[in-house]
Amino acid sequence: MPAIAEYCADEPPLVDSYNALLRLGQHNETTTPPPRGELTTSTPIPRAVSECELPLIDVGCLTSGQQQANSAEERAACAAAIAAAAAEWGFFQVVNHGVGQELLDAMRREQARLFHLPFEAKSSTAGLLNDSYRWGTPTATSLRQLSWSEAFHVPLAGISGKAAGCNYGDLTTLWDVTREVADAMSKLARTLARVLAESLLGHGAAAGERFPEGCDDATCFLRLNRYPPCPFSPDDASAFGLVPHTDSDFLTVLCQDHVGGLQLMKGSRWVAVKPIPGALIVNIGDLFQAWSNDRYKSVEHRVMTNATTERYSVAYFLCPSYDSPIGTCREPSPYRPFTFGEYRRRVQEDVKKTGKKSGLRNFLV
Q: In what residue span(s) does the Fe2OG dioxygenase domain sit (predicted)?
């Protein structure tokens, strides 16, 4: 286990946040007994009891650029596998996805250089990736709400050109690699989204070809994640790298490294996702679940901490504009009409009031 003093020297002040929330939790437990059945900060949170292999789908017939040479039967079988995984798991992995391994390796190297800058450089207003640096959980009121991680949550519009005033120092290649990764993941995400839409609407349906509307560089995000070693792991099972959540988008494409730590809820238990070299992970977001009338599942997931090893990942989020109505694949829908902006505002209100996201339940008819 790394020494606390050594850990604090070059990392975001997550230890300070942890200790402050620990003291707050101990104070609350001595002054206000929790309701029957509610977890306290000292209640052990069970870790995953098994490791799973997500459905692994070869999507080369959709992404190879030689789609005409692929048979209709092959494409139909691939689409059926994607739709089945989205409905049963809400998660799946893809290979032959069109995002080159050399590009992903370059992204990993650039991330390491970026995140190993001094904390002051990352958190200052120097303009690193349009001031998109985040760490921990500013709204956390308990340890179960603290994410032991740091990230650059970058709007695609923020990496479409080198805006004036950005100071990248010697990270000049970061910009180009990040843009290439965003473009490649965006192409994959849109292809998969159209396939999933057509599986419900019928192949070649006009709405499926346009789906999802309102998603462009002004609305979609690329998130560069790093999970530093956590000196409290694994002794404290409430030390999350990323707290349990669902994604508030249509679709997420994730590249994780070999370290592992991603877990998802399957049925009523947590399962760990086994990393597969070269594969990308895809998961359904809340908006797709709503649009599909709950056919596709937005599944709760989390990242666990590691005591000795840092973990990196890159995630692309397919999001519409704030004023975009989410709509439905067919009527009647279990959800009332809402826009993405309404959804995000309600999520933020819930987190502020209760510390957790209620999500789609707020929009049921």
A: 217-320
